[in-house]
Amino acid sequence: MSLAQWWRNYVLESPLVSLGWLYLVQGIPYGLQDKFIPVQLRSLGLQYSSVSLLKLLLLPWLLKGLWAPVVEVGGGRKRWLVASLLALALTALAGSLTWPEDLTGVGMLLLGLNVFSAVQDVAVDGFALLVMPDHLLGVANTIQVVLYKVGCLIGGAGLTYLLAFTSWSTTFSLLALLYAVTAIWATCINTDTRLSVATTKREEKRMNTSQDAVECEEDSVDKCPIGFSGIKGIGWLSIYVLLYKMGERGAINNLPLYLLDKGLTMEELAFWSGTVCQGLSILGSTYGGLILGKTNVSLKDVLIKHSTYRLVSIMLQCLAIYLIENKSLSDHMSFPFVLAIASMCWLSYSSGVISTASFTLMMKVSRECSRESQASHYSLVASQEVAGKLLFASMAGIIVDQYGLLRAFHLFTILCSLPILVLAVMPTHLLCLKRQ
């Protein structure tokens, strides 16, 4: 087999490889907005509230469900995918012409990246829903969450390290080049690859489903071509996806900025928050995908267990902040600082497991709808998830400025306890994975 044939057979025509790379590239703008830009702006003296209000520029992700039907029926997924990647390349190139002190320019840069990466997300999600059979949903969601977070790592710590050795203009020029190369590569992707095979496997799986899965299916729903109204218990899923990231994002976004105020350098923060924590989040997401692939593991148990771990980690962050504030510590090797960093790492790992399990839950419910509307439904649920973390993340900085960091973290702790209660009362059929 020639190198060209190997490249086409195992890279261009492999849905898993294609999905993995596209999700990785898609994660870069979020890492840029979540890690890279806030640290740059906070180092320039911006308040917590001003930094957190930039989260409102994630609004295009909230509106993703509105244009998902347009992407599905208007021009084909590949056309939208290539167009969005080219638009991302042009936006990054325009970003190379601005500078971090220009808040308007930075805001326009982030808005453009969010708009076009949200369009890309709709196209890629539709591709995943079409080509992945039921028994590979765990694998697909692991690839999605893990490589999306790798993209976040590149957009956060990666760009921070790159900026230390180059310049703002060079950093964004290289980002534009990455998007342009990906757009060219995307023109060669066959978005219908293995579609018939995946569909055949789904049909075979339905015919050979075990009795346990049949009982689970009987409690489930009929295929719904239009909306979620026909899915029994869907309200609990909506409440869960709105709540489950709120407290977590408040803590993850604000504790690193607090440590920056207390003397950590941007390079140290990039290492702990951008590299170590993001790496642990990726590890947690990988573990989540592996554990959900086992036949004797309950999705509900995984979510409740690691949501509890997340709650404990934020409680430890509250303790660390209390000790640092009351003892006026500045030694980075003191117990409170070590506790803050260790709990931040634990939170990142737990959130990784929760993310994979939650996206598996969301995709599982979307697969109950007709194939023509699966991507729209998944985008709608994902938009609810974005709404929860976006609206609160944009307000968290204001809460910190008005009431203090410790009181804000008390609120984050309460918010992290609510998803556990919702999971405890959520209907069983929504949390039941089909098994072969």
Shape category? globular
Helix content: over 70%
Instruction: Give me the CATH superfamily.
Output: MFS general substrate transporter like domains
| SS summary, helix count | 18
Low-confidence segments, given as residue ranges, are 193-223
What CATH calls the topology is: Growth Hormone, Chain: A
- Structural class by helix and strand composition: mainly alpha
Compute the number of strand runs. Answer: 0
Known CATH architecture: Up-down Bundle
CATH level-1 class: Mainly Alpha
Describe this structure in words.
Its main location: membrane. With 436 residues, the chain is mainly α. It is 78% helix and 0% strand.
Describe what is shown at a glance:
With 436 residues, the protein is mainly α. The chain is built from 18 helices and no strands.
